[in-house]
Specification:
The structure is a homodimer.
Chain A lengths: L2 E7 L2 E6 L2 E3 L5 E3 L3 E5 L4 E9 L1 H17 L10 H19 L12 E9 L5 E5 L5 E3 L6 E5 L5 H7 L6 H18 L7 E7 L8 E4 L4 H20 L6
Antiparallel strand pairs in A: 1-2, 1-10, 2-11, 3-4, 5-6, 6-7, 7-8, 8-9, 11-12
Helix pairs in contact in A: 1-2, 3-4, 4-5
Chain lengths: 240, 240
C-alpha cells in the first residue's frame, strides 16, 4: 500500500509521500513515490503515485523520456490542466499496453496520481488523476487530496488544513497525518519524501527525505504524542 | 454504515456506538446499535452491531425471546466464551434462514458484533464476533475492538488506550474517535449511545444517549478542536 497527501494553499503547495510498496504482506520494498519535473523558469511539477508499481514506474520513465525526445512534453504544455490530461492519457496507454486478459491473474494495473505544480501565467494548481485517466482539481473547499491508505490520516487534515494554513504548518500536519497512518497500518512506512513549493518560485529544491532516524521527525512524533496525552487530561469529562 | 468501539480496561468496559444506518446515501435512518441484557445479579452483557440491519434486529429479537422461552439463554450460560459462541450460532442460523441465492440481488446479509460483559466467576471480557459466527477476544495487547467504519477513528485509540486507562478517559477517547469519524464520513452520525460497565457491578445503568444538542458533547468537541489547533502551534517545525 501507499499513503500520499498533497495540499494547495495560498502560499504554495505541500507534498508528503511514504515509500513502502508491497505485493502481499510478505513482499515489502522501498520505492520512491515523489517525482519532480521542472526547468527552474516557468514549469515546476510534482507527481505522487499510488497503485500498481509497474504502471507508475512506466509513467515516470516515459514522461522523462518524452521531455528529451518529444515536442509535446511536460515542459512545453501551457497549463496544469493540459499536464493532467497528458499524464492521464499516458496512463491509459500504458495500462492498455500491459493489459492481456488471459494473463492478468487478477492483478489490478491501475494507479492513482497527485499532480501539483505551477506553470507561468497560472497560480499553483493541484490535481488528482484517477485510475481511469480522468481527473479533478483541488479547490478552496477541498484544499487537499490523498491517495492510497487515506482514512487513518484524514481526520487531522480535516481539522487543521484550510487554504490559509501556512506552508510549514501544513507540512507538520501532513507529517502527523502520515505518522498516524504508519502507526495504524503496516503497509505504510518510512522513509518519507517531503516537498514544499513556494508560489511563483519555480523551484523544486525545498525537498528532502525523512528516514526512521531523522531527529526532527522523532522530535515531532514525541511532541505530538505527549501533547495529545496532555490534552486528554484537560478535556471536559462526559458524565454518566 | 456504522461505527462502534468497545474497550476492555482494568476497571471495566466502555462502549460507544453511533446510530446511523443507510442503504445507499439516499436512504438514511436512525437505529439503535447498542443493546443490553442483564439480571442485575450475575449476568451483565452489552452487544454492539454493525452490518445488515435485518440480520442484527433478528439476532436481538431472538436473543430476548429466548430469555423468556428457552432454558439455554443469555442469562443462563456460564461464561462469556459460551455467550459469544451462542450468539455466533444464532447469527449463522438467521443468515441461513434468510439466504435464498435466487433472490439475494447481491445484498450482503452479514454483520459484525461486539460482545462485552461479565458473568459472575469471571473477569469482564470482550469479544468480536465475525460475520462467519466465529470470534476473537480482546487482550492486554489489544484492549479495544472496532466494527464498521473504523479507520478514521483508530489513530487516537492507538495513541491513548492502554489496559490501565481510567474508564472515564477511555469514554472521552471513544467520543473523540467517534467525532473524527463523523467529521470524515457522512454515513456515521449522532445520536450516540454510550455505556460504562464498572467491573463486578453487574449494573448496566451507566448509559445514556448523546444527541446533536448534548452540551457536554459539544463542549468536548470544542475543547478538542481548539486544543489540537493550539498544540499545532507549539509543535517543532521540520526544516526544509
Amino acid at each position: 500500500m501507499t499513503y500520499c497527501v498533497a495540499m494547495k494553499l495560498a502560499d504554495g503547495l505541500v507534498f508528503v509521500a511514504d515509500s513502502r510498496t508491497n505485493a502481499g504482506v510478505d513482499n515489502i520494498s522501498t520505492f520512491r513515490k515523489l517525482f519532480t519535473f521542472g526547468n527552474g523558469r516557468d514549469h515546476a511539477l510534482v507527481l505522487l503515485s499510488a497503485g500498481n508499481l509497474a504502471t507508475t514506474q512506466s509513467i515516470v520513465e516515459l514522461l522523462k523520456r518524452r521531455i528529451e525526445e518529444a515536442e509535446e512534453n511536460l515542459m512545453t504544455l501551457p497549463s496544469m490542466y493540459d499536464e493532467a490530461a497528458y499524464i492521464g492519457r499516458l496512463m491509459r496507454e500504458i495500462i492498455e499496453r500491459d493489459t492481456h486478459p488471459q494473463q492478468s491473474q487478477g492483478v489490478d494495473l491501475g494507479c492513482s496520481l497527485l499532480l501539483g505544480g505551477q506553470i507561468r501565467g497560472e497560480a499553483p494548481r493541484l490535481f488528482l488523476i484517477y485510475p481511469q485517466g480522468n481527473f479533478i482539481e483541488a479547490s478552496a473547499e477541498t484544499p487537499f487530496f490523498q491517495i492510497g491508505e487515506f482514512k487513518y490520516g484524514k481526520p487531522i487534515l480535516d481539522r487543521i488544513i484550510t487554504p490559509n494554513t501556512p506552508l510549514e504548518t501544513a507540512l507538520t500536519c501532513g507529517l502527523i497525518s502520515m505518522d498516524s497512518t504508519i502507526k495504524s497500518n503496516l503497509t505504510v512506512d518510512l522513509p518519507l519524501d517531503i516537498l514544499i513549493y513556494n508560489k511563483d518560485s519555480y523551484s523544486l529544491e525545498r525537498t528532502r527525505q525523512i528516514s526512521a532516524e531523522d531527529e526532527q521527525f522523532l522530535a515531532l512524533r514525541k511532541a505530538w504524542g505527549e501533547g495529545i496525552r496532555e490534552l486528554f487530561n484537560r478535556l471536559p469529562r462526559t458524565e454518566l
